[in-house]
Amino acid sequence: MKPFDSPRQTLGTLDADAAARLVTAAADVALVVDESGTIRDLAVVAADLPLDAERLWIGQPWIDTVTVESRPKVEALLREPVEPAAAPRWRQVNHPVAGAADLPVLYCTVRLPRRGALLAFGRDLRAVSQLQQQLMDSQRTMEREYSRLRHAETRYRLLFQLAAEAVLIVDAATMKIAEANPAALRLLGDSSKRLIGRVFPLGVDIDGQRAVQDQLAGLRVAGNAEDIVARAADGRQRLLVSASLFRQESASYFLVRLSPLAGDARATMVSPIRSRLLEVIDQLPDGFVVTDPNGQVLTANAAFLDLTQMGSEAQMRGEPLSRWLGRPGVDLEVLLSNLRQHGVVRSFATAVRGQFGSTTEVEISAVSVPNGDPPCLGFALRHAGNRTAADARGRELPHSVAQLTELIGRVPLKDLVRDTTDVIERLCIEAALELTKDNRASAAEMLGLSRQSLYVKLRRYGLIGAEEEAETDTTAS
């Protein structure tokens, strides 16, 4: 501390009042303490200090006005007061406040010229204490977040190392492999030192490399890309390649997963057969569509796209199948209900409406696959055309109400009403013949028909044979 060079000339002789004003101007709290450490006078300058010091502290030992841990500091201040020409030694003490946090005050003491009294200058440290508390809270928060990040990174590393799928982290800018898990090293048959830094794609044949490059290019533009199938470079197995894009530290990366489609020799042998089966289904002239259990389209072949006049499979994926069936909200519900009950539906007659207004009569055969992964429904649609109307005219009449019920949803209502009338008429004729012991004349009279009309209806319903019909015609003539 550098004191005034000539205080007597610049400050002059100060009286007690002037000295008191200087002290109160220089401190937030000022204490006059006698040689025994008792507070004899004080001045509380800061009006917002939560102290009732004027009433409680005067006449009390200074050491009794502070907290326990601050008592040694007060003893040091009383024992080593600062001489007028020496540098001040500041110590922080805390005063207890009822119902609130302790009040921190920074003190230094100066010896007064008479009777060994001390003058204690105090500065309010609440603002500094609040800043310190905020700093500590921020530091604790940072430590918690850092610990959470370390735990998350540990879990990520563990999952990355233990994953059964081959996983690669590829730099989207340079296409170089940044990380690879042990499964990728086993699949690609390389060591980590040789694999890291190599340009991707690798491990697949030439056609597969082109397909993967197109997949990643589409991923850059659209943010998502469909999975593709590529054959391994050794030609022994096929790989399902999945990719996703993420950002880290202002850089973009691809997360690429490689999953073998054939896990053993038997699966390797069956896989090409199933591949050819899928190719055949896609080339079928009959429409074929696969939906989820609620009727939402998952995939469809080219023939179904032609029936619905849709441009691509992606346009109908996720749409309800009822959008294209003849009666929206009815036909699909009938199909789903029968599939839930029986698992299979055959020759369900309906129509398919195209996107631009065309209508095609079809027959639908459907099957439920509840144990699939995921569960799904398959629908095969075959052109019916004029055959539907011909079959409706020439089909055998139902023999019971149960058979009529089965036709609901498969036959138009007007045909059902006509068939119902025919069934009732035939049942009445059969009952009349049974009551009359096959006496045609009595049966005709009972039904209110002429004999000729009765024979016409018998022939219509197949209740009379060809020989009997010829004999009847000879007798009538």
Key terms:
477 residues; alpha+beta; Beta-Lactamase; 4 domains
Write the layout of secondary structure elements.
Elements: H1 7-10, H2 16-26, E1 29-33, E2 39-44, H3 53-56, H4 71-79, E3 91-95, E4 103-111, E5 118-124, H5 126-162, E6 166-171, E7 177-180, H6 182-188, H7 192-195, H8 206-222, E8 228-231, E9 238-248, E10 251-260, H9 265-283, E11 287-291, E12 297-300, H10 302-308, H11 313-316, H12 331-342, E13 344-353, E14 359-369, E15 376-383, H13 386-394, H14 401-407, H15 413-435, H16 440-447, H17 451-460, H18 466-476
Antiparallel strand pairs: 1-2, 1-5, 3-4, 4-5, 6-7, 6-10, 8-9, 9-10, 11-12, 11-15, 13-14, 14-15
Give the count of structural domains: 4
The residue ranges in which pLDDT falls below 50 over 5 or more consecutive positions are 263-270, 388-395
Structural class label: alpha+beta
Strand arrangement in the largest pleated sheet: 2-1-5-4-3
The CATH architecture of the largest domain comes to 2-Layer Sandwich
Radius of gyration: 49 Å
CATH class of the largest domain reads Alpha Beta
